[in-house]
Design goal:
D-amino Acid Aminotransferase, Chain A, domain 1, OB fold (Dihydrolipoamide Acetyltransferase, E2P), five-stranded mixed β-sheet, globular, binds nicotinamide-adenine-dinucleotide, binds zinc ion, metal ion binding, Znf_DNAligase_C4, DisA/LigA_HHH, DNA damage, BRCT_dom
Amino acid sequence: MTPQERIAELTDRLNYYTHQYYQNSISEVDDFTFDQLLAELADLETQYPEFRQPESPTARVGGTISKEFATVYHRFPMLSLGNTYSEEDLIEFDKRVQKGLNNQPYEYICELKFDGVALSMTYENGLLVQGATRGDGVRGDDITNNVRTIRTVPLRVVGEGRGASSAERGEVGTEVGGQSGSQITIAFADHTPQVPTPLPPALFEVRGEGFLPLAEFNRINKEREDIGEPLLANPRNAASGTFKQQDSGAVAKRRLDCYVYSFLSDQDIFQTHEESLIAMKQWGFNVSPTWQKCTNIQEVMQYINQWEEKRFTLPLGTDGIVIKVNRYDQQRELGYTAKSPRWAISFKYKALAASTVLTGIRYQVGRTGSVTPVALLTPVLLAGTTVKRASLHNANEIERLGVRLYDTVFVEKGGEIIPKITGVDLNRRTDQSQPIVYPTTCPACGTPLIRKEGEANHYCPNERGCPPQRQTRFEHFIQRRAMNIESLGEGKIEMLIDRGLVETPADLYSLTSEQLLGIEKVFLDEETGKKRIVSFREKTVENILTAIERSKAQPFQNVLFALGIRYVGNTTAEKLVDYFGSMDAIMKASQEELLAVPDTGPRIAESVVTWFADEYNRAFVEQLRAAGLQFAGEKKVVEQEGDALAGKTFLYTGTFANFSREELENRIEANGGRLLSGISKKLNYLIVGENAGPSKIDKAQKLNVQMIGEDEFLAMLEV
Ligand SMILES: NC(=O)c1ccc[n+]([C@@H]2O[C@H](COP(=O)([O-])OP(=O)(O)OC[C@H]3O[C@@H](n4cnc5c(N)ncnc54)[C@H](O)[C@@H]3O)[C@@H](O)[C@H]2O)c1
Ligand SMILES: [Zn+2]
């Protein structure tokens, strides 16, 4: 391949990855590979500037704007950061800074590089007036409504100091619990203000990283697994996808967070970046306490080393550190390239890897029957924890890696809690290695596995008889958000099933204390080899039976969720109850009727109809009814106000001064109108609010749908 061809190829490939990454929140390659290809392209372009493509990714900020949101122009460009993976590069950077500043003294502020989505937030007279994405650096998407859902982003900034927290005072002992099981104590640097904190100016902007906390990411995935939804790939892409959603109600359900790391204003109220970090914290912004001032590059190196492993204890994913020249006048002196500031750089950690032997594979069967292979490894130390397992996702992944049993494999720890296998050390493959034969039958019950068109996972179709599926169906049923009988956890269900006391969760309601008293089982912890005895003593039995009895009062919405219908999570259950009001109405509903429920698509509708069509499931439901569970809820009654909108269909976009989304929907229905879920020829009116989505407006124009404002809508109601 000639350099010219390689340049063209790299440009295309990198632009494609960039599009996938920013537009579709998908990483087709890992960041290290991406950065290497980008560096290769930059090198080639320096050598052969004549072949440089006009759309080269080397001089542009990666993202773009999308049609779903209104476009905003940034007051100050939102740039990228130069990045490096080596100490040598960092020393080079330091030399450039030194030279650029003509050997004046300077200091750095080091921060963690948070792995999420860059956000810009503008405040006017203390109020949050705009939240935007970085976009192409010049223009971004107006996602104000989504940014407002972040609880740690103040909607209003009052200039009073909030007083320093213990972390800011540099006290040791703040606990950060990102990793399951381990609590590490971290000492943060001293962030005591050196100068009095000024009041915030009338107009200013803060920038930060919007992220999905790891705990939240895991919670969401656990829920998705429970109802049979595909899992989110990683916290960064999940955060990016969430910020792009239109429905800020759905965004609010994922508890996003934001660490703020930069301040911009026309007024010079700070001399240094450090002052701004301290002040933003005092004004009520969420500033991570992990930053530190370093007086030379050696101290920067120490900071880097110090955080290499410790960063895994933080509540979010981080992929490196960011080094910034502290003084603003010096930042100005150093200036910018087209893509990034010359006064800052990021140092990215190479993913922490270790090599170990794959000793076996355990195939786990989930509630909805999906089979997931888990790699069993010879224990190895990685980022401060002993790793014995790694995720392998599915059969495709095993094939992609070409991994065999007893191979030496590389395991890496990225942002996720469970490490993953990233490759095979072929040099160390021995005669002992054996191909992995993916099971064709369920490892738990022997039923032949099936694989649905287009799905990566294999399933065990024996929903009823398969022990782990049965077990997890109970776990689903007793969880707090369902029937709330959590006192049955810790192996107790297994014991009841083993004894033949229960077959389905409905059988719980006929348990008696005579049946339970005295049951005992010894559990052996595989990892520690410790024994644990669970026995049903008088007190335990009493607690369990009381909890079962009490669960009969759980609202209908919880009961519907507890049934364990695929794709029917908590939110969907709530919507179904709002719409139909009772179990009988839902059981009778046709696919079409179900589709009329807000946010219910064909996948859910089909799943509900199929589930209730099954006699076994219906018998289960009847048993629950006989036990006295709540089978009806509050149907959301829309009190009719009139019929001014009768026969007319509506859809809305944007936000409104007089109504919330819900109020607007209620008013439409209360006046005889009907809400549609998308723009089609059937739509009569599109109500356009503030920050309306341009793509909806485009489509409405094309289909000649009448667009009205909030006032016109109100006027229609008056008739
Ligand atoms: N895997 C892929 O397919 C793929 C595709 C495109 C880009 N990428 C990744 O994205 C990177 C390019 O993205 P980029 O241009 O956003 O650069 P970047 O992510 O390397 O650096 C800039 C960004 O860092 C973030 N940041 C986090 N903590 C910060 C802090 N304390 N201070 C300042 N900024 C902080 C900000 O969001 C800022 O916009 C590449 O290096 C690559 O790793 C990956
Ligand atoms: Zn099975």
